[in-house]
Specification:
D-Maltodextrin-Binding Protein, domain 2; 5-stranded mixed sheet; alpha/beta; 259 residues
């Protein structure tokens, strides 16, 4: 296989999204050192709307549509997404080219005073950007006040420090990738807080039947992760899930947690 001389990766511009794109760029350059891999930073509708919960915005693919348009228009060759942001249906002409090995799929609690979830005083305010997390928090602790919290990972952590919040809940994978594990108060296992479909996994999206990029990206695929994530996404598609529905799902392979 002859690799192309140049590949452009489209990505959101948050620190976490850029980390993920840089990670994929590093993997590609290690395998194909003669290939120049560039990043194309983009802003999505989900990034622009910060004044209300995503559940009230409507629509699917709020964090991926503009990036997918860049792929379809040929301005980028590869897109790197958080798998949990991906709608259950992929636009015609695009495919998931690879799913690298999954990071920790569960959630973590960050609290102002270092208290775990069970010890937060009744009436404490806890922030989350997710209907899924909110529904499960209200089930676990109906005496807490759950409020919507938008923004990137750093913004939400900053609001914990500045706003009247007792705690926030975030994805463990993002915290780990950004080197913020020292802020974690408690890891929430999947028996208490079932994660989002695809959480912790990356999606490398490409144009369908791309003879240049397809074989290169395929080398980054982790078969066990793809199998489990594909099952989770089939479940999401069957339920027609999106940002407006608090759906959670976590697959296992051969009785072991797939990472």
């Amino acid at each position: 296989m002859t690799s192309p001389e140049r590949i452009v990766i489209a990505t959101r511009e948050s620190r976490l999204a850029l980390w993920q794109a840089e990670h994929v760029r590093g993997l590609l350059q290690k395998l194909y050192p003669s290939c120049s891999v560039e990043l194309l930073g983009m802003t999505t509708r989900g990034d622009q709307i910060l004044d209300r919960p995503l559940a009230k915005v409507g629509g699917k693919g709020l964090f991926v549509k503009e990036i997918e348009d860049a792929l379809l228009q040929g301005r980028a060759d590869v897109a790197v997404h958080s798998m949990k942001d991906m709608p259950s249906e992929i636009p015609a002409g695009l495919v998931i080219g690879a799913v690298p090995e999954r990071e920790t799929p569960t959630d973590v609690l960050l609290s102002r005073n270092g208290l775990p979830l069970r010890e937060l005083p009744a009436g404490s305010v806890i922030g989350t950007s997710s209907l899924r997390r909110a529904a499960q928090l209200r089930h676990l602790r109906p005496d807490l006040v759950v409020v919507p919290l938008r923004g990137n990972v750093e913004t939400r952590i900053r609001k914990l420090d500045t706003d009247p919040l007792a705690a926030v809940v975030l994805a463990a994978a993002g915290i780990k990738r950004l080197g913020l594990e020292h802020r974690v108060t408690e890891h929430l296992d999947d028996e208490r807080m079932l994660p989002a479909v695809g959480q912790g996994a990356l999606c490398i999206e490409i144009r369908e039947q791309d003879p240049r990029v397809g074989p290169m990206v395929a080398a980054l695929d982790h078969p066990a992760t793809r199998t489990v994530v594909s099952g989770e996404r089939a479940f999401l598609k069957r339920l027609q899930g999106g940002c407006q529905v608090p759906i959670a799902g976590h697959g296992r392979l051969d009785g072991a947690l797939c990472r």
